[in-house]
Amino acid sequence: MTWRSICAAALVAAAGAATAADAPRLKPFVLASRGAGEVPAAAAAVKAKLSAAGFELVGEYAPYDGAVVLAVTSADLRAAAAQNRFGGYGAAQRVSVTKVSDEVQVAYTNPVYMAAAYRMKADLSPVAAALGSALGRLEEFGPGDGRTAKDLRGYHYTLGMPYFDEPWKLGAFASQADAIAAVEAGLAAGRGGTRKVYRIDLPGADESVFGVALSDGCGGDGSVMREIDFKPLRSTGHLPYELVVSKGQVLALHAKFRIAVNFPDLSMMGSHSFMNIRCAPDSIEGALRKVVGR
User: Which residues does UniProt assign to the signal peptide (predicted)?
Assistant: First the structure.
């Protein structure tokens, strides 16, 4: 290489490094408000604000005392999710109302973070702006240093942990209708300690997403969250888990991926760690397989 070409290559590399360093650092949750109050009244106020902003409440879930999760969607969210297969994971945003000591925290999942983590084609920044306008936006929270969108699109917690494109394949059916019917029946029967929180059908796509509450065993929502959601700002909107039914297949993100992408600074060992919920992934997978009779 000539000296000129070496210099040019160095400048390109430096520019790339600078661009990466300047990329926004995203966090999975957004704190909308915090203050005195009680969960029922705060949740009612939040629902009214979301409705006025054009969001549709598709499910409501109280996973444990002092916490409510509201699953919301919109025509824009459904259209965005339909742009690529498995976009259904991002079809709902989750708004949480949580009592922490003497205050009530209202928070929601960060649509831009989730779109990157779920490898969606769509830009969900307008959805993020709409949620911020409706509910408020004090700060993003989660991991201390955040993650770039590029990092999230290839997110991998560590060696031996799954990627987004390594989901649990829970069942395959002759048709989309048969698969949806199986999931609906399993959830209605409460198989595996599950309960349906919501269902969203994507327009023009052979894909639906279900929000699923989990109550049994080591993988129960309360059991897992008591261990991992311990910081002063609560990430209750991690719940509920999703099942995606796509082209007759029933899938779910591996719990090791889904927990890690929402709690990327959770330690592997020690207090409040993956080690302390090591039985949860198998328990969650077993519960979801029972939903589809597998």
Answer: 1-20
